[in-house]
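Extended Data, panel c. Modelled sequence:
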Amino acid sequence: MDLSVMFFGADDAGADGGHAAKYDEILTIARAADALGFTAVWTPERHFQQVGQVFPSPPVLSAALAVATERIAVRAGSVVLPLHHPLRVVEDWSVVDNLSRGRIGISVATGWHSADFVLAPDHYTDRRERAHADIALLRRLWAGEAVEFPDGTGNPVPVRPQPAPFSPRLPLWLTSSGNPATWEAAGRLRTNVLAATIGQTRAELADKIVRYRAAYESAPAQPGTAERGTVTLMAHTYVGVDDTGARQRIDAPLLAYLRSYVGQTAANRAGDGRAATLDDAQLDQLAGFALRRYLSWGSLLGSVDTCRATLDDLAAIGCDEVACFVDFGLDTDEVLAGLHRLATLGKGVDG
């Protein structure tokens, strides 16, 4: 099982040191993950919300991570593709690919929060279709193919992105929030999959992986793709000395994070509106329910033995990599201590 580090964070802008301190923390954790042999470091794209507020631009932060590390892969989890011109995505990530000497990867997301699309309001309604259609375009541009786009006069002009990437192949994932159709689309597109354990049962997740594998195997060969896709699952992670101590440390920060996430979801105008009417007590109740459900299955929260059993279970249903979500409110020293214990469970990592 490959183990990676995932950042997402729900941080208060008024916290000690402000956002500059948060970036220092990200760099510190990434360097430690690099030294400990973790597979990748993932950063998201988030806009205008408390959750993930320090992550508006994955390629900018990934450029810093690329030069701060030596061997760990530097990945976007995710790029909200309908918010960007595909040509600009390829150019930005080609820079990071050169800085990292070929260590990049990106997961394509369709986007979900209506507020994000103030950046591209005309792309919200058909965001899924746009994202899926542009995956083939990303591959063509990454391979150095000249593609026609309208210029400032409205006339088509062939353009080739610069700089040329360091790697001949662009590793691509498709981000899924849980819809089985997205898993099947990833298989047909021959991308990897980035998804979360939270919000679905073991049986539901196993079924989606089976659907993905079948779709991938039956899809026609596509340039720059592997024979087998990678299933990467995001999971909140803190490996403690024992189960009791670990859960005592994570209970309050994880509950606060989940409450913040519920509040963000309530602000999405594309929802059914019911969450927006919840009062503070109801939000607390929902967050508590989510925490209890998450502790029952799908997280890496507990002792080394408990987390090893979870990893074995995820491997048994077809997971290839776990992106360990570590920045949900623990302090840096606790995160680093947990990473050292977690590293003993990783494939090819010395304990």
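Residues 243-266 form the longest helix (24 residues). This feature is highlighted in the accompanying rendering.
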